[in-house]
Amino acid sequence: IRADKAKKMGLVDMIVQPLGPGLDGADKNTLQYLEEVAVKQARGLADGSVKKTPKKKGLQDKVMDTILSYEAGMNFVFNKAKAQVMKMSNGLYPAPLKILEVVRTGSDKGTKAGYEAEAQGFAELAMTNESKALIGLYHGQTACKKNRFGKPQRPVKNLGILGAGLMGAGIGQVSIDKGMNVILKDMSLEGVGRGQEQIRKGLDSQVKKKKISKFQGDQIQSNLEATISYEHFGTLDMVVEAVFEDINIKHKVIKEVEAVIPDHCIFASNTSALPITQIAQASKRPEKLIGMHYFSPVEKMQLLEIITTPQTDQLTKQIAVDVGLRQGKVVIVVGDGPGFYTSRILAPTLSEALLLLQEGVSPTELDKATKSFGWPVGVATLSDEVGLDVAAHVSHDMLKAFPTRLKGGNPQMLLDLNEKGIMGRKSKKGFFLYQDASGKGSRSENPEAMEVVNRYAVEPPKENTIEHIQWRLFTRFVNESVLCLQEGILFSASEGDIGAVFGLGFPPFTGGPFRFLDQGDNAQRVARFMEECAGLYGEQFAPCQLLLDHARDAGRKFHGSKK
Asked: What confidence tier does 461 reach under pLDDT thresholds 50, 70, 90?
């Protein structure tokens, strides 16, 4: 909330104008001035020399006061508020409901009773699993905003981006306003034009919201150079490729780029699943090659997954993390392997979702089950968002690497959908029909897609209740997360939690897969459920050894002293 708007809303009593530079910088001068004014006003309010001006009530406030003066009106307002809270949180977060309860106590029984209820409610909430989980996420997020490899002596000033599509342009947008000069290269003028337009729209949106001025927007845009040649790549400190997910194309691009960039320049691949070691086979200097997996839309998604190999040198890691932090990202660093961490843990869940569709669960029912469990986006909608063509491509590569772990739905079903042009939101038809590629507006299930799904129908070995659906999807996600830690893809449980929540929308109130397993007997519950499902559906549900170890030893925790 901007300062002037906050004052109009009554959230703050006074605002100060920013100061310019003097003996110190503008920011330091303004903060010092703000502190002086705040202290002076506080003292004045305390000794009575400053009187707080009461907020003038508008017509809407007066009408609300009248409604709340009657018990029926009070009940109506609080029931409406509770219904809205339940709609937004599915009752999974206790704090909003407790806040309503406290406010009602204060309204019914007076200020003193309200304050007592507030203190009691705060104490109760502080001890909930949700509170501990969200505090754990906060500490994990804070840790991921620091560069554990140290600050580079030569930070990146000139950044090259290959590919001006949604990802490439998004990476450019979060870089040009962070003190980096960006060269955005594509194969065609049409391609770079679309990339430029996407970045321009992003800046115009910030101007419209008054986050920046029109002049600042133009100034930031001037840091961008769009091109179809490698002419100025000799000045670059880092290149990020965001080309199509094809190993041959990536190898071709690496050879072209390494012929024109300086020796110190780092090459980063924005791949979502291809192993960096495999990509680096085309490089003359694999120690300078690293993975930087951004999430779409880049300008909105907070997570950046950096992938290192045994060959990646320390300076390359240092600079890659520094660039991500400057771009405003929450950065996790993981080891190399098919799918790395985030794509790998999502793959079994999506495979299980396909099998559920084959068993007769509708896309609407899948979305309802997953959203009511705490996922921000339903799994059928998520598949459409990712793209059914991308899902088919990634599942093909991942199945070769993990033939057992990724068992579930029939992958041929995805290929059949692709053949009919059913590729998800971008083609306006996936498991749902979309009015436009933005995904906004009303939508319905796609009968053409369901016709394909029905050709692969199988009989479920057990009734698919909502809870059973939720746990089939949830446990495969959690088990694969633990296996990534067991195999050394993850370097810490904390980064695993951050990656799952900030990259894939894992229910935040759980604190992430590892924090969830640490609570009570959750490790035992997950292991038991998976062992039961292994007998029903197959070996893909077999719990990994590290999960079994934690299930057998209640004192063993992923977060804490006993590992």
From this structure: very high
Count H helices and E strands in the chain, helices first: 25, 10
Residues near 12 by beta carbon (within 8 Å), at least 6 away in sequence = 3, 6
Angle at Cα 230 formed by Cα 229 and Cα 236, nearest 5°?
140
Distances (CA, A) of 146 to 140, 141, 213, 325, 388: 10, 9, 30, 8, 36
The answer to whether residue 256 is catalytic is no
Distance from the Cα of residue 408 to its chain's centroid:
25
Distance CA 121, CA 176 (A): 46
Q: Is residue 476 classed exposed, middle or buried when 0-12, 13-18 and 19+ CB atoms within 10 A define those classes? A: buried
Q: What is the pLDDT of residues 295-308, one digit of tens each?
A: 988 999 999 999 99
Q: Hey, CA dihedral for 481, 486, 492, 493, is it positive or negative?
A: positive
- Residues linked to residue 356 through DSSP beta bridges, in sequence order: none
- Assign 429 to helix, strand or coil: strand
Confidence of residue 438 (pLDDT cuts 50, 70, 90): low
pLDDT digits (tens, 9 = 90+) for 499-530: 999 999 999 999 999 999 999 999 999 999 99
Burial of 332 by CB count in 10 Å (0-12 exposed, 13-18 middle, 19+ buried)?
buried
How far is residue 222's CA from residue 405's CA, in Å, rounded to a whole number? 48
- Token couple for 312: 């990646």
Identified catalytic residue from 305, 352, 480, 495: 305
For 336, other C-beta atoms within 10 Å of its C-beta total 21
Pair 329, 465: CB distance under 8 Å = no
Residue length, the chain?
563
338: its two tokens = 């098919």
Q: What is the distance of C-alpha 21 from the center of its chain?
A: 37
Model confidence pLDDT, tens digit, residues 440-456? 556 899 999 999 999 99
Q: What angle do CA 135, 136, 140 make, to 5 degrees?
A: 120
Report cis status (omega within 30 of 0) of the bond before 310.
no
Token pair belonging to 528: 């038991």
- The DSSP secondary-structure symbol of 163 reads -
Q: Render pLDDT for 78-116 as a digit per residue (tens, 0 to 9).
A: 899 999 999 888 899 999 999 999 999 999 999 999 999
Print burial letters for 356-394: b (CB count within 10 Å at least 16), e (below 16).
Answer: bbbbebebebbbbbbeebbbeebbbbbbbbbbbbbbbbb
Distance CA 143, CA 497 (A): 12
DSSP 268-287: EE--SSS-HHHHGGG-S-GG
Amino acid at 168: G
Rounded Cα gap, residues 514 and 129, in angstroms:
13
Q: Return the ∠ at Cα 349 (arms to 325 and 340), rounded to 5°.
A: 40
Q: HSE-up of 277 (CA within 13 Å, CB side)?
A: 9
For residue 433 the two structure tokens come to: 């029909």
